[in-house]
Amino acid sequence: MTSIDEAAAATASMDAAAAATASNEDDTAEAASDELPSELAAWYGEQGLQIARVADLAPRYRYARVKDASETDAIRSTLDAEPVAWLPGFLRMPAARRLKGSAPYEDRRVFAMDAASGYAARALGCNEGDRVLDLCCAPGAKLLCLAEAVGVNGAVDGVDVSEKRLSVARKLLDAHHDPAGAARVRLYRSDGRRFPDERELLYDSRAADSFEQRGARKRLNKSARQREAKRLKALPEEDCAEAYDRVLVDADCTTDGSHAHVQKMVEKGTAVDNVSAERCSSLLELQAALLRNGFGRLRRGGVLVYGTCSLTKAQNEDVVEAFLRDEPAARLMSLEVPPVAVAGSIPGTVRFPAGGETSGLFVARLEKTPNVVVT
Ligand SMILES: C[S@@+](CC[C@H](N)C(=O)[O-])C[C@H]1O[C@@H](n2cnc3c(N)ncnc32)[C@H](O)[C@@H]1O
């Protein structure tokens, strides 16, 4: 067993929710009225949150990310949706409405993505041509936004420890990313605490492009997939250790702010174990290590966004504050608080509350201070 396999095993509980997360935003409307297990409700109480039912976490709106801005008005009227005033490129509709099955969704002119997630991707402030590292990238909605933001001259390296979740990301890319006309996207299976060490390249959109020219992409049988994997391995790779312009650390967490995840875990009977003291403490170590390595991969003057879909202070502000104490080159940058969110308990950070207009999310933005030249 490699250390990547070990790290993947530690997050296996998340895999159950992977498919839901890919279309997650499309399943959140099924607001269950089930009561939470009493231990879980008590755990929320310890975080200062009054959450007794799964439905208390449900966002009021369902969101669609429009891929081509010039189509926004037409798609908006087809979906009978309204624009999200604080987030360009997003439409919202009542949560009970389905996006799946609508023409814009089936024609792949939109994809489902919660607006809080869209905000986190936008907070990175990508520029055309940037090199971006997405350290916990699967199932990949933010990865798609980052790839769009850096354009054809940019590149996004997506890293995740879970092969299963990476295969969902691959499907999203197949559906929504143009390998020839857009950013280069690579997917690596690796432990984000150590990337670029011990990495396995699973997908390269530029290689997929050449594959497509042979008319074979999307219809690969098992032996063709094996040949493709071998070919990817043989490709000369640029060094991933080089400094990135932007890094997203969308860290693994207890997912207690996500209605879709909590609903799945309650159904499966894993929701209480998911917040056990042992799991929470191993997640805290993981989050700190992901943040440390993500920051290490950033160039001077580069920007990192740290986020989780946990509502706890421990997994959010505390992780960021501890990191700022240890890392003199890190500086917290202020984020604008959208009208549907609130300020985090450290100034400059943003919290989207669960059970509000969006899914629950915490977002912090850090800069690696530029070199100071002493004269
Ligand atoms: C919150 S999800 C990421 C969501 C993703 N950014 C998106 O927008 O779709 C957290 C991810 O972290 C991954 N993960 C957990 N431990 C990891 C590790 N040690 N290294 C890299 N990824 C890890 C999980 O497999 C999961 O896919």
Question: Can you put this structure into words, describing what you see?
Answer:
One of its GO terms (molecular function) is RNA methyltransferase activity. Belongs to the class I-like SAM-binding methyltransferase superfamily. RsmB/NOP family. The active site is at 309 (nucleophile). Residues 24-34 have a biased composition (Acidic residues). The protein has helices at 3-10, 12-15, 18-22, 38-46, 72-79, 103-106, 115-123, 141-150, 163-176, 205-213, 222-234, 259-268, 277-296, 317-326; strands spanning 61-66, 82-83, 90-94, 110-112, 131-134, 155-160, 184-189, 200-204, 244-250, 298-308, 330-333, 342-343, 350-352, 361-368. With 375 residues, it is of the alpha/beta class. It has two domains: 1-59 and 127-375, 3-Layer(aba) Sandwich (Rossmann fold), CATH 3.40.50.150; 62-113, Alpha-Beta Plaits. Strands 5, 6, 7, 8, 9, 10, 11, 12, 13 and 14 form a ten-stranded mixed sheet that branches. It has a four-stranded antiparallel sheet with strand order 2-3-1-4. The model is unreliable at 16-32 and 210-217 (pLDDT under 50). S-adenosylmethionine binds next to helix 8 and strand 6.
Topology (elements, then pairings):
Blueprint: H1 3-10, H2 12-15, H3 18-22, H4 38-46, E1 61-66, H5 72-79, E2 82-83, E3 90-94, H6 103-106, E4 110-112, H7 115-123, E5 131-134, H8 141-150, E6 155-160, H9 163-176, E7 184-189, E8 200-204, H10 205-213, H11 222-234, E9 244-250, H12 259-268, H13 277-296, E10 298-308, H14 317-326, E11 330-333, E12 342-343, E13 350-352, E14 361-368
Parallel strand pairs: 5-6, 5-9, 6-7, 9-10
Antiparallel strand pairs: 1-3, 1-4, 2-3, 7-8, 10-14, 11-14, 12-13, 13-14
Helix pairs in contact: 7-8, 13-14
This protein binds S-adenosylmethionine (SAM).
S-adenosylmethionine (SAM) binds at residues 7, 11, 14, 117, 136-142, 159-162, 165, 191-193, 250, 252, 286, 309.
